[in-house]
Every structure is written in structure tokens, then in C-alpha cells.
Specification:
587 residues; alpha+beta; Penicillin-binding protein 2a (Domain 2); Beta-lactamase; 3 domains; seven-stranded mixed β-sheet; five-stranded antiparallel β-sheet; 18 helices; 34% helix
Length: 587
């Protein structure tokens, strides 16, 4: 019986020991969890939040900029967002025993990656993010590695502004820089600046935890305000026309050894800009490499020049419209005149004798323009120049537009000599886009058209909103009859005068040259000139105005041998590009 009692007692003690051995650790763990989560929960939550919690602003996807593409009947993205990847190490998660295998694997996929850089990253054992390669755009390779990842290696996705056609229309498109106040990327030139509010969208916000490499950890406890992506803009510029314009402009600048050049192509009846080119230019993808910041300027809009004899078409229009001259009026050219004790004269001192008004334009006779100004009166000429907008902005949708200056003839002390030189485009200054707009009054029956670049807005949902503006200005600058007379004189100039080199065989056009001395260091230069040519076609119903400008050409004495040839090349391209039928069977 005693033996039996001892056996039962031993069994009981053994059971108690086993129960304690099993449940005591559980009790300890549960107690510890209770202590950590309930009693000390707020304390440890605060530690985690202090380390990983963030309230951040989420930047929206910026809208694209599109040019038209007549050949493919499509839109071409000229400013977009390109996704790049950064290859990075997570050194904190890499086992020392696997480092050599990791290095071998990385060198297999990225042969140019320096081994020393990988090894340096592996020493940062407390870091979760060590970048190895930035701006990776081999999407196939990234996808393969994401499907079969290398332990301790990852890809961070980022997006940058990208200009797929490089220098194409760079001064028109502009580029982005970081705003020091907001840390946002904002447009600083061109369309990127002018339409920044439309393109940039609205930022969102996120409050919650973030990972070691900065990715958002969305959960029930996080708070988020949705980001609104930017809208895209559709420009009037045709990618192919712009490319050809830039190509021809560069060729002419280089052939004529000019300092710079400008070319504008505008639809004469709508104001739609098809091309706007400047040379030299720059690549907006590498804008930070540019040392000469003047390359950022769109000189077609932002700079004003004394444009010379192209202004004679406006002087002629003013005289005809005011009834002070007729197209058949004649005067006796004596090649020079002295006013206010200063003598001015014709180009190279040419003496023409008895000439009529169409010869004034055809032969670009300075004294003929002075004759018209004297019949009209200086103040009346000034008023017409103001109506043509030579001293006011056109309102084109590009930033930093300059306005011309008529102050030399708009002051109380203005002299006869000032009005005389203004009649042939010296002593006054205007921008190329202002001159194109003024010329549209001649091609458009007396009313100017507003030049513009925005054709439409493409919303984030893909819908397109047309933004086509009113094409004509409200004021009639000259009568339709006057416009027709000046058009005919400009056609005569191409057929018989200094515009002959602009003519394309089988096609009629009208135009006018300009060769202006540059005003440098307080006086007019005898060597540095601005050559320009403005013209239109077809003649019956003008569709295109083209304006070409070369500054300081060293080869070619006048616009007849420089800017006129560039105009010819561009108009010939438009004829081919738009398949325009011939209208002159006599040539």
C-alpha cells in the first residue's frame, strides 16, 4: 500500500512539472505582449511613428506638350515624362556569405558597374538604400530582374521631364527648374512656363508610414488626399515643318556666317503658328550645360530689332489708305535728302529718277519711302505704325514677350529726320512676331490676325478641349482695297525686284526684303546688318506668311542674297508638304 501511495504522489508531481514546463513560457510571453502592447503600447507606437511616420506632399504627373504631325495625322509628344529606374542595394539585408555571389550576379547584368562601388555599398550595413546606377531606361532588363530578383537588390522608380526630340523648338517649349520656395518643378521658359498652371496639376497629400527607401505604406490608419494629374497641351506647331525650318535656318546661318537667325511660319488667315525657329539653339534635356543663357531666349518674341525695309510695306499701306498717294503716283528720285542738317540716301547711293510706287517696293528705294512719309505727314505715319502694333505686344501665348519701340517718333521733340528714317525701318524697333502680325493686315483684307500657339488641352481622362481663339483683331487697319494694292505691289517685287530669289517655279508669291544697319555703341555700324524677308503665298488667297531674319551675316551684302533664299527654301517645302497646286503657269 505504501508503495502504491508513493507512485501516485510521484505521478502528480510529474504532471505539475510538465504543465508548468509547457504553460509557464506561454504565460511569460503573453504577459510580455500584454506589457508591450497594452501597458507600454503608446510608448513604443510613438517610437515607431517618430521614425517611419511622415506627412508628405505627393507631386502630380505633369501633362505633356504635343506638336501636330500632318504626315501621320497624329500628335507628337515633344515634352513628356520619362520613367527611369535607380538600381540600389539594401546592405542591411545582405548576408556576408552571399556577397560574392551578389557581386557576380550584378556584374552579369550590368557589366559596366564598377565592382568597387558595389563593395563600398556592402559596407553600409546599417543602410537600407545605397544607389548603384541611376537613370536606367532598359525596361526589359528591369522587368526581368523584378520577376527573378537578386536578394538585397531593388529598383526605385522615378520620373523626369524628357524632351524626345532634343533641340527641336527648344526656345518655344522651354524647360523645368526647381522652385526654391516650393521645391516643385516649374516651367521657366517657353510653353512650359506660360502654361505651367495647366501642365502641373494639383498636389496630393499623404499621412502615414513610409518604408526605409521612401515608399508609401498605405493602411487603414493612413490619410490621403488624391493628387490631380496635369493636363496636356496641344500646340499649333507641326513637328515636321518645325524640323525643316530649323534645318534650313541652321544651314543658312552657317553658309552666310551669320551670328544668329530667326524664322517664323504663320497661317495668314488664322494666326496659327506652324513653326518658330531660332539658331543657335540648345538641348533642354541638358540645359544645365549651357553657359550662354541668351540661348534660352526666344528671339522671335523676346527681342526687338530695327528691321529696315520690310517696314516699307506698312509705309506704303498707310500712304495709300490715307489717300495721300496712289499706286500710279510718281516722284523724281534724287537718291538723297538733307533734313535737320543730316543727309540720308538710298542703298549704295542709287539714283532712280522718275519712278512710280510699285518700283519703290520692288527696288526698295529709301527716298521713295521718305516721299510717302512727307505726303502723309510724320504724325500720321506714326499713328498707322501704332495701329499695325509695332509698339505693342501681340498677345501670343509665350512668356517674356517684348514690345516694339516707336519712341524716336513718339516724342514731342521728334524731328523730320526721325520720321523720314522710320519710313524705311531705321530708328524704330519691333519684334519679328509683331512684324508678322502687322503683315497679316495686308494678306487678310485689312484686318490683322492674332498669332497663337495653343490649339487644345488634353485632359487626364483623354478628352480634348478646343481652345481656338478668335483669329481676327476687331479693328480694320487698312481697307480691303488698300490691302489688295499692296499685295499686288509685293507680287511685282518678287517678279521684277529684289525678291526674285524668293520665287518658287510655278507659284506666285509676294514679299519684301529688308537690310538694316545695326545700332551698336551709340552709332550705326557700316559692317553689321540685319537681313530679313517677309512674304506670303498663294497670292489669290494667302495661306502662309513666312518671315526670315539673319543677324550679322558675313557672306552676302543684302537680304536679297541671304534671307530671301531661306524664304524660298521654306516655301518650297510647304508646297511639297501640303501638296499645294501650282498657280503660275507662265513660269
Amino acid at each position: 500500500m505504501a508503495s502504491n501511495h508513493i507512485s501516485k504522489s510521484f505521478h502528480t508531481r510529474t504532471t505539475i512539472v510538465l504543465v508548468l514546463a509547457v504553460f509557464l513560457p506561454v504565460l511569460i510571453i503573453v504577459s510580455r505582449l500584454f506589457y508591450l502592447q497594452i501597458i507600454k503600447g503608446n510608448y513604443y507606437s510613438k517610437l515607431v511613428l517618430d521614425k517611419n511616420y511622415a506627412a508628405i506632399k505627393i507631386k502630380p504627373e505633369r501633362g505633356a506638350i504635343y506638336f501636330e504631325d500632318h504626315i501621320n495625322n497624329d500628335l507628337a509628344p515633344v515634352a513628356t515624362n520619362k520613367v527611369y529606374y535607380t538600381l540600389y542595394l539594401d546592405p542591411s539585408s545582405i548576408d556576408a556569405n552571399h556577397q560574392e555571389d551578389l557581386i557576380k550576379s550584378l556584374k552579369t547584368y550590368f557589366p559596366t558597374l564598377e565592382e568597387t562601388k558595389i563593395r563600398e555599398g556592402l559596407t553600409k550595413t546599417k543602410s537600407k538604400y545605397y544607389p548603384l546606377i541611376t537613370r536606367i531606361d532598359d525596361y526589359d532588363l528591369v522587368t526581368r530582374l523584378q520577376k527573378a530578383p537578386i536578394a538585397g537588390v531593388g529598383f526605385a522608380k522615378n520620373s523626369i521631364r524628357y524632351y524626345p526630340f532634343g533641340t527641336l523648338a527648344s526656345q518655344v517649349i522651354g524647360f523645368l527648374q526647381t522652385d526654391n520656395d516650393t521645391d516643385n518643378l516649374v516651367g521657366v521658359y517657353g510653353l512650359e512656363k506660360y502654361y505651367n498652371d495647366i501642365l502641373e496639376g494639383s498636389s496630393g497629400t499623404f499621412e502615414g508610414a513610409i518604408s526605409g527607401i521612401g515608399t508609401l505604406i498605405r493602411s487603414l490608419s493612413s490619410k490621403e488626399q488624391a493628387v490631380v494629374p496635369g493636363s496636356s497641351i496641344i500646340a499649333t506647331i507641326d513637328k515636321n515643318v518645325q524640323f525643316k525650318t530649323e534645318q534650313e535656318l541652321q544651314n543658312m546661318v552657317e553658309q552666310k556666317e551669320a551670328a544668329s537667325g530667326i524664322a517664323i511660319i504663320m497661317e495668314a488667315d488664322t494666326g496659327k503658328i506652324l513653326a518658330m525657329a531660332n539658331y543657335p539653339t540648345f538641348n533642354p534635356n541638358e540645359y544645365s550645360k549651357v553657359n550662354d543663357y541668351s540661348l534660352y531666349r526666344n528671339n522671335a518674341v523676346e527681342s526687338r530689332y530695327e528691321l529696315g525695309s520690310v517696314v516699307k510695306i506698312l509705309t506704303m499701306a498707310a500712304g495709300l489708305n490715307a489717300g495721300k498717294i496712289k499706286e500710279t503716283s510718281t516722284y523724281n528720285d534724287n537718291h538723297k535728302v538733307t533734313l535737320n542738317n543730316k543727309t540720308i540716301g538710298n542703298y549704295e547711293g542709287h539714283l532712280y529718277g522718275l519712278v512710280d510706287m510699285k518700283e519703290v517696293l520692288a527696288k526698295s528705294i529709301n527716298m521713295g519711302a521718305v516721299y510717302i512719309e512727307q505726303q502723309l505727314g510724320g504724325s500720321a505715319l506714326r499713328d498707322y505704325f501704332k495701329k499695325f502694333g509695332l509698339d505693342s505686344k501681340t498677345g501670343i501665348d509665350l512668356p517674356n514677350e517684348a514690345e516694339g519701340s516707336l519712341k524716336n517718333i513718339d516724342r514731342q521733340e521728334a524731328r523730320e529726320i526721325d520720321f523720314a528714317t522710320a519710313s524705311y525701318g531705321q530708328g524704330i524697333a519691333t519684334t519679328p512676331i509683331e512684324m508678322v502680325m502687322a503683315a497679316s493686315a495686308i494678306t487678310n483684307n485689312g484686318k490683322m490676325v492674332n498669332p497663337y500657339i495653343l490649339e487644345g488641352i488634353k485632359k487626364p481622362d483623354g478628352t480634348i478641349e478646343s481652345t481656338h481663339m478668335d483669329s481676327e483683331t476687331s479693328d480694320t487697319i487698312i481697307s480691303p482695297e488698300t490691302a489688295a494694292k499692296v499685295k499686288a505691289m509685293m507680287v511685282y517685287t518678287v517678279e521684277n525686284g529684289y525678291g526674285k530669289r524668293a520665287k518658287v517655279k510655278g507659284y506666285k508669291s509676294g514679299g519684301k526684303t529688308g537690310t538694316a544697319m545695326m545700332f551698336i555703341n551709340g552709332e550705326y555700324s557700316n559692317t553689321d546688318n540685319i537681313h530679313s524677308y517677309i512674304g506670303f503665298f498663294p497670292v489669290e488667297k494667302p495661306k502662309y506668311i513666312i518671315y526670315t531674319v539673319l543677324t550679322k551675316p558675313m557672306v552676302g551684302l543684302s537680304a536679297e542674297s541671304t534671307a530671301t533664299i531661306l524664304w524660298h527654301n521654306l516655301s518650297a517645302y510647304l508646297i511639297s508638304y501640303y501638296n499645294i497646286p501650282p498657280d503660275d503657269m507662265t513660269h
